Amino acid sequence: MELRHLRYFVTVVEERHFGRAAARLFMSQPPLSQQIQQLEQEIGAQLLDRTTRKVALTAAGESFYQDALAILQRVDDAAERARRLGRGDMGFFAVGFVASAAYDILPRIFREFREMLPQVELALHELQGHEQGDALASGRIHVGLARLPTVSESTIVETVSEETLVAALPASHPLAYFEEVAISDLQGEPFILFPESSRSRYAQLLYQLCSDHGFEPRVVQKTGEVQTAVSLVAAGIGVTLVPESVQAVHRAGIVYRPLKEPRPAVALSVAYRADEKSPILPHFLKVVHRVAANH
Amino acid sequence: MELRHLRYFVTVVEERHFGRAAARLFMSQPPLSQQIQQLEQEIGAQLLDRTTRKVALTAAGESFYQDALAILQRVDDAAERARRLGRGDMGFFAVGFVASAAYDILPRIFREFREMLPQVELALHELQGHEQGDALASGRIHVGLARLPTVSESTIVETVSEETLVAALPASHPLAYFEEVAISDLQGEPFILFPESSRSRYAQLLYQLCSDHGFEPRVVQKTGEVQTAVSLVAAGIGVTLVPESVQAVHRAGIVYRPLKEPRPAVALSVAYRADEKSPILPHFLKVVHRVAANH
DNA sequence: TAAAAATACTCCATAGGTATTTTAT
DNA sequence: ATAAAATACCTATGGAGTATTTTTA
């Protein structure tokens, strides 16, 4: 049995006339009769009572007609579903991101993507940059959004945006009086930093910056969370440096001040496997770059 | 797209190897590859990621595989269902019967039929003999069980059983003292009969019998229901004649006595349209005749 | 007797086979 | 280097066409 038999049978039932059915199927009547006979023989039951005057369904035919309709519909649905999954208009897509991306760019990417492809289920995983390599390799995420990600030969990395760093200061801090802050001004200040043990590339960058300006930061508190760091600054515990997008986090008692030229910057990048096959990936990258371009 | 494509695809997915799948399908590998390519082209999406080392499903392929399995299963089910309906192992069958058949033979037919073909839904319609012609013609019932049914050219009638008539008498009646009763003994007795207006062939027969024995029955009560007639006899209102199978109805205050030779008999027949196509009919007739043969 | 389905036959499109090449590990 | 899928080309089954017959209302 082939779908051809079902299509022919359904048409004959709808027309209740072999000649008209054949016309609708753009074929001649004899082969249509033959295919219906073949179908009846394979099933082992008469489906149609036919005389030269009328074509009527038997009980078996009625049952088979209903089934045939449902089957043909399901075939169409299955093809359409596969087509959409193939185009990436539908499906599942997992994104890894670092906490510092969560404040500004990620919500915008997420919003635009949902609007463009509402049928794609996005899964968001907060992962530190160094964890994203594994997650990509094992297929747990399709893309990673990280700052200064670890590069590997089987991974493609594209820079999304460069953000300058800003100083986060308690509102009552003397430096808050100025428009800009030099990193060297922060020498001796109580620093809130990120544990190097977390192997965060971002933490390493901050240590490097201080070192470049000739001092070792005086760390009074360490935290792995940008949000916590910001809270501690607001509480007057100390100062820190954050990507400018973190300014979106408003809190009483905190002020952000740009750094003096040359402003150190930190990049945000997307990373994905070179052999990533998900048809959703190009759509996602397009959205990421569009959102980044709109700053 | 044809079912062939789904069958091939499912096999390739199960084997995850074109060569082995082709072997299982008793064909060579190249045409199998071609058919899968054809399927992918028609759907417009890649279903399989294939290298020389492994064959893997894409998201679209995974979805289509699940659908294909369900579709193939449904095709099998549809064919099986139609087959059963065609054989009459399953379906719907409507039987018309006269009240007097309901006491003995019908329950036995019903029980045997249900045991033999539990998947057939039997509908039972109590209809007087003269109503059964219309019901058959209009297709409301597939067979009628009646006494002395009206015959027509488009209807086939088969005699199921011949039942002799017995006299139903109040237990206190003087004739109850004898082993047998002659119809002529009933002359002048109060008769409970059936209205001729109901055009019951059975009522006509009883009037005819009395007339043959040279008297007009003295009717004290008319009823269309055998059961009511029996109740009235039990209450001592009068006498009547019933088919012997009605003796199955036991009631205090009633006795049944066979009639003297030659015992008048009344036939029970099955009637069905000459062009009746229901495949259940032969099964039903077989049961009817078997039950009748077992008396 | 007329309309429609079934049969008889013919033809060609395409499913499937064979031989070979390409590709990825 | 090798196993496996893809490609190229050929063959032949069977789906579809044309002409005709059979059937039944």
Structure description:
The structure is a homodimer of 295-residue chains. The first copy, chain A, has three domains: 3-87, Winged helix-like DNA-binding domain superfamily/Winged helix DNA-binding domain (Arc Repressor Mutant, subunit A); 91-160 and 267-293, Periplasmic binding protein-like II (D-Maltodextrin-Binding Protein, domain 2, 3-Layer(aba) Sandwich); 164-265, D-Maltodextrin-Binding Protein, domain 2. Chain A is 41% helix and 23% strand. Chain A contains nine helices and eleven strands. In chain A, the strands form three sheets. In chain A, strands 3, 4, 5, 6, 9, 10 and 11 form a seven-stranded mixed β-sheet that branches. Chain A has a two-stranded antiparallel sheet with strand order 1-2. A two-stranded parallel ribbon of chain A has the order 7-8. In chain A, strand 1 and strand 2 form a beta hairpin. Chain A starts with a helix and ends with a helix. Chains A and B meet through helix 4 of A and helix 4 of B.
Summarize the structure.
2 copies of one chain form a homodimer. With 295 residues, chain A is an alpha/beta fold.
Q: Any descriptors?
A:
homodimer; 295 residues; alpha/beta; Arc Repressor Mutant, subunit A; D-Maltodextrin-Binding Protein, domain 2; two-stranded antiparallel ribbon; rod-shaped; DNA-binding
What is the correct CATH architecture of the largest domain in chain A?
A: 3-Layer(aba) Sandwich
Low-confidence stretches of chain A: none
Number of helices of chain A: 9
The chain pair with the largest interface is:
A-B, 37 and 37 residues
